[in-house]
Write a sequence for this structure.
């Protein structure tokens, strides 16, 4: 579909704006994301200020580019290279608003490369890179900051640490010292455990205070690490996951070689237009 036809649905009267709960089929659960549909590239400082104003974990910015769409994500503090739940929310908006045919896959051009999103019934499926976790020693002070005496496994992928603990209840009861975590040389901590009341293969939580997220509600990116880890641990290519934050959210995780197919649902909470002018990139 030509770019000029794809963009006319929102480019004539400012930016369209949405608030979407991702990785859930019920309002006020899952992970909220803001989605801004733009006529073209925007000034990064404008995007950062708007992300700070929305004050959700991520705000997604979308405009047509070449044979797909340019997608960027900003937390209230910084731009990030990969984020699952606002990608799911953005695809949900494009299909729900009739801006693309319901059966049309979407290619998003991002800082992490091209991400392909497809639809399977009411479920949105994200094709994301798998991030294998290698066993590693933990930074001094991390266990104490997490309120843990020991873990079954500790590993890392880049600056992101995965900790397997004994039971889902341990994951749910964690109350980390966020101020202590900020001082440590890491980006995020992902505590996880096998099981989840018989309905899930594993549960997890996600803490990234250095990026402005003391705790994220439901995190697509985290499952790029959790998918390959639990595939190896449980010997399964298809996994049911639950992120046990206060809001909570369910995900389907399918491993395909070096890719993670992440399935989730979404619910639109707010739709409208920005009352402020769009600021194009200089």
């Amino acid at each position: 579909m030509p770019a000029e036809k794809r963009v006319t649905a929102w480019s004539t009267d400012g930016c369209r704006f949405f608030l979407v709960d991702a990785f859930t089929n019920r309002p006020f659960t899952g992970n909220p994301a803001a989605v801004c549909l733009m006529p073209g590239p925007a000034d990064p400082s404008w995007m950062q200020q708007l992300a700070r104003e929305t004050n959700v974990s991520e705000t997604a910015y979308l405009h047509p580019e070449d044979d797909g769409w340019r997608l960027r994500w900003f937390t209230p503090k910084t731009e990030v290279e990969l984020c699952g739940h606002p990608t799911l929310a953005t695809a949900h908006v494009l299909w729900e608003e009739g801006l693309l045919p319901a059966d049309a896959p979407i290619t998003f051009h991002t800082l992490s490369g091209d991400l392909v999103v497809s639809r399977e019934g009411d479920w949105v499926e994200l094709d994301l890179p798998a991030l294998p976790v290698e066993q590693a020693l933990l930074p001094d002070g991390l266990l104490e900051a997490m309120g843990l005496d020991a873990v079954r496994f500790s590993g890392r992928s880049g600056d992101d640490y995965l900790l397997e603990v004994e039971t889902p209840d341990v994951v749910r009861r964690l109350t980390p010292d966020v101020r202590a975590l900020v001082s440590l040389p890491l980006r995020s901590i992902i505590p996880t455990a096998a099981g989840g009341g018989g309905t899930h293969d594993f549960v997890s939580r996600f803490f990234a205070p250095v990026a402005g997220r003391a705790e994220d509600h439901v995190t697509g990116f985290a499952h790029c690490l959790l998918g390959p880890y639990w595939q190896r641990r449980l010997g399964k290519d298809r996994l049911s996951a639950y992120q046990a934050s206060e809001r909570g959210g369910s995900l389907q995780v399918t491993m395909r070689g070096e890719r993670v197919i992440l399935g989730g649902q979404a619910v639109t909470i707010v739709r409208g237009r920005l009352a402020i002018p769009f600021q194009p990139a200089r």
Q: What stands out?
A: The two ends are 27 Å apart (CA to CA).
